[in-house]
Amino acid sequence: MNDSSQNELQDLRQRLEDAEETLRAIRAGEVDALIVDGVEGEQVYTLQGADLPYRTLIEEMHQGAVSLSSDGAILYCNRSFSRMLKQPQEKVVGAAVADFLSESQQDRFQAMLAAGRTQSIQNDLQFQTADGKTLSVYLSIAPLPLSDNVAMCMVVTDLTEQNKHRTIRESNQRKDEFLAMLAHELRNPLAPIRSGLDVLAMVGGGQEETIELMRGQVNHLVRLVDDLLDVSRIVRGRVDLRREPVEAASLVRQSVDALRGILQTRNQELVISLPDEPLWLDADAVRLNQVIGNLLNNASKYTDQGGHIEITLQRQGEQLLIRVTDNGMGIDAELLPKVFELFVQSSRSLDRSQGGLGIGLTLVKNLVEMHGGTVAAHSEGSGNGSRFEVRLPLAEAPREVEEPPQPAAAQGALRVLVVDDNLGAVKILTILISRLGSHVIETAHDGEAALEKATQFRPDLILLDIGLPKMDGFTVARKIRENGDLERTLLVALTGYGQEEDRQKSKEAGFDVHLVKPVDVATLRELLQSCQSARGSC
What we know:
This protein is of the alpha/beta class and 538 residues long. The chain has 15 helices and 19 strands. Helix 7 packs across helix 10. Residues 50-124 form the PAS domain.
């Protein structure tokens, strides 16, 4: 081999050694940049720029990012982790993770550390922050092999916000359950009171005015119970509207009728101004009755004895305007922007003369907005009365539908079974039903007795409470529906539970109708007549 060939081999061997050394240096992290000599001249390629996005990601992420030695010493941490511990970053790096754990958490972490040397592991843990507080976290540890040394990466997620949200959700659920139970317990005694007033009204005796005043107070209490139950569900959007064509003037008349007793008690004058033409809405009639009723009740509540209240309906372009005006105590300027907020009321005195829960106007605002409308409050200040204006989109008048023939007032006696563990409610409801016709009535006070009576008595109509001892109303209903001899019985849930999920459960259990206590005499009469008219299938 000549000298030229030997030189070429030596030059090639040197280049290979240089390349191997470069690769070794790159792998060892000793090289910050490469200079490559090409046709376009020397090009500089920096390795630092290649990992910059990843460094930025680690530093800016909300979770804590930590690299650990095999014995749990902190080799690196990002700012998020040091902020979690409320420690300066330089004090955290170089310390042991165990330094930031309470004694009760040491064994738990050491077990995670041992497992994390060979596999990925996750668990909950609690750190101690610099101010002595406990920080709940979710910890993930995984091995990070570096040459012959074993290190680990640790990702730390602060659970404070998650725990706070879970606590709020659980609190809301408990509140809803409490309100549902409270409404049920309040409605139960209201049922015999209203039924008793209906019986007294039928008997007569010159006490009609007193009865009407008492009925107005019962209606007021029923409305408060309904508002209390509805408010949390409505403001969280958990109410579905049952839209149908609704004639606006009929809503006003219904709301006024329900409030007439209160107005008479306070000797207040109510002026009703309705348009000549029928104005139609695509709306939930029950919810809009709630809106109008709350506005009228609010006007009455803050207007003195003998005061003046006016409700006006009128068309404004493609909108319906509902205006409720009073000459009462008015609204202070600082309170006016807040009147629709939950639990906001005018200044209270010890006598609580205005009363109320501070939720009625919140319901009004949310229900109006659910219908695509707006509501506004106006007042010239204290002592100058107030004006509330609701605007709702108008709908086309429905096509005329031939009215079905009305059932006859009486088509023979019905066999009626009344089931409730409230003995007073059963007694007064039995009296009321007997006043509405020559019906044969049986009673029961628990689920097992109801099922036995239904089997023996074979009623046309069963009025069944849900919260019964021995066997709940849902179970009774399902068993009745399994009995072929009772397949034509009209099964009515008469209960203090009135939420949408309660109605759905009733339907699934086999109830034909779900009525919420207290039921008025008009509803009961309509129910009996409906059963009589469908006697062939009832």
